[in-house]
């Protein structure tokens, strides 16, 4: 992995995780902005309802059930950047976030489906 790729990855992670704190409710970024730019500051998929679900008793399953809405929130934010952003580097990063996060969502959903099928097979 090149230094540039690693830096972009770290920056994308920082941006995605920055939404997990601040003065607004979960899923919304602290901002004084309004209008089109405010679309990037929150996502229903990243909100409290999607992330606060009852435990299944299986830490692996619970981890992915929480991570999927988190990744979906990152995709929503990246789409808002593409819809409203003008900086070519940020737009490129948004495209990368969409591509990588969607691929990870597919992996996570596949794992959950396989786990569910395996549990049904052992009953």
Secondary structure elements and pairings:
Elements: H1 3-18, H2 48-51, H3 59-84, H4 88-121
Helix pairs in contact: 3-4
Outline:
This is DUF305 domain-containing protein. It contains four helices and no strands.
What is the CATH domain class of one domain? Mainly Alpha
Helix content: 55-70%
Number of strands: 0
Question: In CATH terms, what is the fold-level topology of one domain?
Answer: Ferritin
The N- and C-terminal alpha carbons lie at a distance of 44 Å
Strand percentage = under 5%
The oligomerization state is: single chain
CATH architecture of one domain: Up-down Bundle
- Radius of gyration over alpha carbons? 16 Å
CATH superfamily of one domain: Ferritin, core subunit, four-helix bundle
- Structural class comes to mainly alpha
Mean pLDDT: 76
Q: Identify low-pLDDT runs.
A: 20-32
Order of helices and strands: HHHH
- Large-scale geometry: elongated
What characterizes the major β-sheet? none
* Tally of contiguous helical segments: 4
Q: Explain this structure to me?
A:
This protein is an all-alpha fold and 123 residues long. The protein has a domain at 60-122: Ferritin (Up-down Bundle), CATH 1.20.1260. Helices cover 65% and strands 0% of the residues. It contains four helices and no strands. Helix 3 packs antiparallel against helix 4. The radius of gyration is 16 Å and the shape is elongated. Mean pLDDT is 76; it is low at 20-32. InterPro entries: DUF305_CopM-like (IPR005183), Ferritin-like (IPR012347). Residues 45-112 form the DUF305 domain. This is DUF305 domain-containing protein.
């Amino acid at each position: 992995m090149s230094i540039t790729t690693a830096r972009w990855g770290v920056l994308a992670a920082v941006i995605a995780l920055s939404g997990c704190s601040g003065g607004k409710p979960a899923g919304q970024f602290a901002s004084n902005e309004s209008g089109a730019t405010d679309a990037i500051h929150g996502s229903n998929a990243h909100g409290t309802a999607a992330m606060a679900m009852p435990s299944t008793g299986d830490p692996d399953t619970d981890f992915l059930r929480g991570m999927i809405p988190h990744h979906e929130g990152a995709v929503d934010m990246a789409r808002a950047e593409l819809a409203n952003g003008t900086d070519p580097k940020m737009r490129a990063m948004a495209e990368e976030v969409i591509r990588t996060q969607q691929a990870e969502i597919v992996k996570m959903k596949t794992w959950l489906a396989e786990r569910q099928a395996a549990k049904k097979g052992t009953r």
